[in-house]
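Sequence in, structure out. First:
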Amino acid sequence: MKSLLSRRQTLRHLAAGASSVLALPLLAPLTAQAQGAKTVRIVVPFTPGGSTDLLARRIGEKLAAAWNQPVIVENRAGAGGTVGADFVAKSPPDGTTLLMGVTGSNAIAQALYPKLPYDVIKDFAPVSMVVSAPLVVTVNPAVKANTLAEFIALAKAKPGAISYGSAGNGTSMHLTGEMFKQATKTSMVHIPYRGSAGMLTDLMGGQIDATFGDLLVVMPQLEAGKLRPLAVTSKQRHPLLPNVPTVAESGYPGFEALSWQGLFAPAATPPDLVAKISAEVNKAIKAPDIQDYFASRGFLMEGTTPAAFKTFLDAEVKKWSAIVKSSGAKPD
């Protein structure tokens, strides 16, 4: 009798397991034929621990739960994010390899690197813009400017006397500074660093005067009163800096520079697959825990259709290409 019961229990367990296995393809992002329960990789083109890596991991957790299949983050760093981007551009277009691309790797790089091994427009299928954040025109408190107008007047009064630092040649921080110089008709000296840490140390120490810094990078120093914000580079004021005006409202309408991150698939990925991945990504972005976590760190949660992201990218590539060309910027 016990043996018969045992066999029945075993059969029930096997049947339940079989049902679970059979259900997996139905919960995959799109087609059981194309993906089944294969592992999906989100390639981050930087080392672990940064904001891009963290964002990919949190989004990946949501996608794994929605699809009931593994979603992992794979870090492929190098050459300003272009190594990881190139890897995804050349991956099979089956929805299992995605890129968490950024302003540098998927907009600026097109003009910055003469021998870029991929085309930022032709070699990717935009899935969704995920987050954006403005840069902040930030000065050392010793600089005698409490407003953007005063800073511009100071720069015009002493051409070439004001210095601004960035995380490196060709970064969004550097090129936003060049765009600012063109818009305001000022002359300032660019001081490139290898990363933000050294730049911030010198800015707080007074070795350089200003930066067009990523909000996440400068926010702790702004809160501590060690640096002074003059303006943000987004079209609207930022929720974390409600009293800081935009460059646009300070007399330069249309001025906008964003540090953004978005999800991409290889170019030949079927449009219906891209659309369905995009829909799941947008659901993940709208999750309250994701919203609260990243909003508290200065990110503006986006979430767009593939078409809207494509339109945005076309404008970004055109804008940054013009800035790279006019400034003569070169990669480090």
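Second:
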Amino acid sequence: MSRMTPTPRLQAAPAAIHDARRWRPGALVSSTLAVHAGAAAAIVAQPASLPWAAGGVIASHLLLTAAGLWPRSTWLGPNLRRLPPSAQGCVALSFDDGPNPEVTPRVLDLLDQHGVQATFFCIGARAARHPALVREIVQRGHAVENHSLDHRHHFSLFGPARQMRDIAAAQQVLKELTGTAPRFFRAPAGLRNPFLEPVLCRLGLHLASWTRRGFDTAAAGDADHVARRLLTGLAERDILLLHDGNPGHDRAGRPLVLAVLPRVLRAIDSAGLRCITLRDAT
């Protein structure tokens, strides 16, 4: 790497940025806080109510956990699951877990052949290892968004301070490489907890999930199965999820995304739909 293009350092970015949003707790979070307050007041007033108060608190925590385990849930805060109504006639292709020097360039070539723009949710540490590839994604007209620093499988167990450090560090790396700060965040595996939305608000990020996913990292090598999941009922404003990083492979050893993506692109063309990035849609 030349002196003109140093690899970004993986360090925490400033905790707040100028695009910070105001956090407003949703109904589930607000009701959980109310349950906690009510339980505490009940125990003070009537100690014998402890079992009932504890049961209410436990039940509220189970609901919060269930909401975090449902990637498309909006119970913990706003979650972009479909493109807004203004994006009529459009869909969004999104790719997770890259950049991958073995797969991402071939995905970019396929997108170029169809004149399609897509959204790449990149892992910060991988982006730092392959800076030229991240820049190429942007140079080809695509958007790069935040998919955490290291894609830890236990990300949903992080407290707010660790989430802030992780997401902010990835934000810094991706902004330094692309010249533009990501606007969207997708949690690893889509799993999260109630601490995430306040952190995203402070960093000016918006949570994004998907309308339909192919499970192309765990589809047992079945490209037909992945394609059916993505294309059955395909409609405008859908957000489709595939993986250029950590891809599953078909029986011939080919990354599933490369086997499935041509079918997806043909289906989108046949349906008369247009692909746009999440940031263009919003």
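Remark: The mean pLDDT is 88.
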